[in-house]
Structure formats: C-alpha cells, structure tokens
Amino acid sequence: MRKQTTESDDPQLLARIARGDRLAMQALFARHRLRVFRFILRFLRDEGRAEDALAETFVDVWRQAGAFEGRSSVITWILSIARFKALSIARMRKDAPLDEDYAAGLADEADDPEVLMAKGDKAAVLRACIQKLSAEHREIVDLVYYHEQSVEEAAAIIGIPPATVKTRLFYARQKLSEICRRAGVDRGWP
User: Fold this and answer.
1) For residues 172 and 170, what is the distance between their CA atoms, to the nearest angstrom?
2) pTM higher than 0.85
3) What is the mean pLDDT of residues 41-46?
4) Disulfide engineering: 140 pairs with which of 30, 73, 149, 168, CB 3.0-4.6 Å?
C-alpha cells in the first residue's frame, strides 16, 4: 500500500478549509506536517529554517485551499508549495554573508562512509552517498523513494514533464551506484 487510506478525505478537508474551517486545517496539518517537514529539511538542512518554511507552506495551504483543482493528490499539491517555499528560503540564504569565524568554529560531525559502515548503519551510508548527487538528482530520489511519489506526482511537484523525471531518475540511480561503489558499499543490501 503506497498511500495512507486517511488521505482519501484530503480533498474534502481542503474544501472545508476554503470555507474557513479551522478544525479541518488542524486535521490536514496534523496528518501531513511531519512528511512535509522532512521534505523541506532535505532541501534546507537547517531545522529552524525548515520550521519557518513549514509554517509558510501551511499558511499558503490555508490561503489557497479554494484554488486546489484536484489535478493531483492533495499531498502532491502541498509538497509543490513546500518545494517553492524551501527554494525561496534557500535562495535568500545564498545572499546572506558568511560569518567566517563562526563557520571555522563549527566541527564537522559527519562520519565518512567507512566509519558509518563500521557502525553498521547502512541507511546513513546511503544518505551520505545520496548527498553527493546533484541537487536535481537528489530531489528526484527524495520524492520518488523517500516520499513515495509516483513519477507523475514528482513531475507535478517539480513542474517538469514525467519523461524528464524518468530520465533524471535513471541517471540518478546510475550515479548513485557509482558513488556507492567508490564508498565501498556493495549492492547486496537487504
């Protein structure tokens, strides 16, 4: 089963939200906040900014609920709003000046792949390898494999044709396999 059965009433919740129903908004937020937060966090890699983007996303859901046309699932629609918010916040961050003294004082807490393998945390090794993919490939892998979006849903979220999603997914898998091989990760994982 790919989607939770409780998501089937999301369109009704959006209709109620469009009429100003705060309880419906609370229900939709409670149902999807963790998933949307994790999605945003993968973009921003900063919990504070991810929380801000999450709040902005659901404010937009509240404001735009009446504009939902049902051409995709509600979660796909919400994730596309979240993606836009995360990208906007990430762009603002690039313009911010870097505090070199602060950055120099930060310790690199990331383990290299060998240490992660020694700990037996295969998922962490895979995540580290995924982080070495290009932003476009990471985004596709994240949507399809971690957020269980179909090719069509991923295309709707990103705003590209499904064929482009398939192509990026193909090359992302190819590149990820190469990165994992260089990190000493075999493909025989359970």
Assistant:
1) 5
2) no
3) 87
4) 168
Q: Which residue, of 96, 120, 145, is where some domain finishes? A: 96
Q: Count the Cβ atoms, other than its own, within 10 Å of residue 33.
A: 15
Report whether 78 contacts 61 (CB < 8 A).
Answer: yes
What pLDDT, in 10s, does the model give residues 77-97?
999 999 999 988 888 755 455
Distances (CA, A) of 143 to 130, 137, 159: 13, 10, 13
26 shares a domain with 70: yes
Q: Which of 11-15, 22-26, 88-92 has the lowest mean pLDDT?
A: 88-92
Closest CA to 153 of 82, 33, 73: 73
Nearest to 91 by CA among 56, 49, 129, 59: 49
Would you call 186 exposed, middle or buried from its count of C-beta atoms within 10 A (0-12, 13-18, 19+)? Answer: exposed
The two structure tokens encoding residue 86 = 């995360």
Q: Which residue has the tokens 């393998």?
A: 117
CATH label of the domain that carries residue 163: 1.10.10.10
- Whether 74 and 133 map to the same domain: the answer is no
